[in-house]
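All the exercises in this workshop are built on plain-text protein records. Sequence and backbone structure share a record, each on its own labelled line. The structure tokens are whole numbers drawn from a learned vocabulary of backbone shapes. The record below serves as our worked example for the rest of this section.
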Amino acid sequence: MDFAMTVSSHGVAALPPSMISRGGRAFGTTLDLGTKRAQTVFVRRIPSGHLRVTSLGTVLEPGQQARVLNSLRAMLCLEDNLVAFYELAAADRDLSWVLSGAGRMLRSPTVFEDVVKTICTTNCAWSATVRMVTSLVRCLGKPDSR
């Protein structure tokens, strides 16, 4: 998996409550951990090839750490087995470029958030999508731990 390619492959990753750094070296998102305040976490690839997760704000309790890791696994599709996809792509000259770590798409931590963002991208300019999603997060979202 190419982390930078995954998080910067489409604009939805940059919509609130998520953010990506220039070049996709870090990805941040704010997650609802079932407490009064949401928690902002950042993920970045470290030289060993692993991903490092850090939280912004309070120290996470073990149960919250598990929720964060489960959410990030789902968001990055780390549990999805793409072997068959890569085998098909390897056999196609026009698709073989995906063998460099492409093939995964970032998704939201919940289906509800993905549906809302999908609706906000329908029949409008990207700038309108950004305004709508930003307003929804600001006006209806849970405040973060900062």
